[in-house]
Design brief:
It is built from 8 helices and 6 strands; from the N terminus they run H-E-H-H-H-H-H-E-E-E-E-E-H-H. The chain has 212 residues and is of the alpha+beta class. The chain has a single domain, classed as Nuclear Transport Factor 2, Chain: A (Roll). Strands 1-2-3-4-5-6 form a 6-stranded mixed beta sheet. Helix 3 crosses helix 6, helix 4 packs across helix 6 and helix 4 crosses helix 7. The protein is globular.
Length: 212
């Protein structure tokens, strides 16, 4: 079922609205320019989320609008959507692709934006970053609940850089990739419904409508 990832979504929503504290990378005196850029990108994103989305008395539609802006600015949402659909993307008609991209974005907005109302002072501590390949960096962070109420959560952000521009292409919560989890669930759902993409589109539309 598509809802199996909800426990990860709850944690990730908390991470996205956490206060950011920057500390040095363990065992490394001077981080490279790319690593520093990636860490600063994650720091700026979470600070933007706090200022934009945790305002008291903000209307639901306004929070959703602001979240959509934040998401499209910082996440490679179209690329993520295409990746999680896998080979079905290449098989889809232009109309199906267009509908899928719209529904995927709408679902992400609806899934996450309402959770920002429940912010309770979580802190995201940036531990360091490491280069992966020629374009990517993994930014390692720890999310701490207020008053250390629960065990710290390890979150790694896969960031892709181009010049001075960075975008998030994956988030790994306790080692579990969000996009790989989503990809597996979409593939399983389509398989269980006779390999029909329209079945997934119908399900996504239902979830968007049920939560709007």
């Amino acid at each position: 079922m598509l809802r199996r990832r909800e426990f990860l979504i709850s944690w990730l929503a908390s991470v996205l609205i956490a206060v950011t504290l920057v500390v040095g990378a363990p065992g490394r005196a001077h981080a490279g320019e790319f690593e520093e850029g990636a860490k600063n990108f994650i720091k700026a994103m979470t600070e933007d989320a706090i200022s934009m989305l945790t305002v008291k008395d903000i209307k639901r539609f306004e929070r959703a609008r602001r979240f959509r802006t934040l998401m499209n600015k910082n996440f490679a949402i179209k690329g993520i959507a295409k990746f999680v659909l896998g080979r079905q993307w290449r098989k889809a008609s232009d109309e199906q692709q267009e509908e899928y991209l719209r529904l995927f974005e709408d679902l992400m907005v609806i899934t996450y934006s309402d959770r920002f109302e429940k912010y309770s002072g979580e802190k995201l501590i940036i531990k360091g970053a490491e280069i992966r390949g020629e374009k990517d960096a993994i930014v390692h962070t720890t999310m701490v609940k207020a008053n250390n109420a629960t065990k710290p959560l390890m979150v790694a952000w896969r960031v892709r850089g181009k010049g001075e521009t960075f975008t998030i292409i994956d988030v790994m919560v306790e080692g579990i990739s969000m996009i790989m989890t989503q990809k597996s669930e979409f593939a399983s759902f389509i398989k269980q419904n006779g390999g029909k993409l329209d079945a997934l589109l119908k399900e996504l539309k239902k979830r968007v409508q049920d939560n709007s």
